[in-house]
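Dear Dr. H.,

I hope your travels went smoothly. While you were away I took the liberty of generating a structure for the chain from your last submission, since the lab meeting agenda had it listed for discussion. I wanted you to have the full record in hand beforehand rather than looking at slides cold. The sequence, exactly as received, is reproduced here:
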Amino acid sequence: MRLFVTGIGTDVGKTLAAAILTEALEADYWKPIQSGNIQTEDAMTVWSLISNNRTHIHKEAYSFREPASPHLAAALENTVIDMDAVKCPATDKHLVIEGAGGILVPLNDKDFVIDLAKRFDAEVILVIRNYLGCINHSLLSIDYLRQHHYKLKGLVLNGDFDADVKRIICTHAAVPVIAEIPELPEINKEAVKRYAESLHLQEVLL
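The corresponding predicted structure, in token form, is as follows:
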């Protein structure tokens, strides 16, 4: 099984969600394209948050210094992202793939981040963060995924949601909420392991 973790925007908790999924499934993890934070890239963050010894962290296809949209970060390094160069790693385990930013973040002049999910035949996990405007961003993202025939596996709700906000999103989404991540006082390996174990994701996802 391949799961593509994307979000309704930037900084919504994709990496935390990816770490929890990776830990729960003892899956491999891959971030195909990294922009910014070269010293503390998302793959290193996930590695620092998981406890199992089965996960393998696969190397990015592209890694750029500038914390910007991948197409811009690439241009600043005189590079154009070539989709044919982004090859899914071979593994006999489940694979958690983390996108960059939201679903329509451009990779080049014609491809978007979410195009990777279809390219790798991966099911989509949409991460939603609770903030003013999240309903609009969530429903637009869900509508796009449906209109373009992506396999939307489920939602991850990150943060403490007002009940009515959650109700509206879930009613219109009509897909399972596979995890609700509360505001964690500290994000560390112990918290991720404890939370991953409590979700029973093997039963929910497989």
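Two observations you may find useful: The beta strands are 2-7, 28-30, 33-35, 57-58, 62-64, 95-102, 123-129, 152-158, 177-181. The two ends are 8 Å apart (CA to CA).

With kind regards,
E. W.
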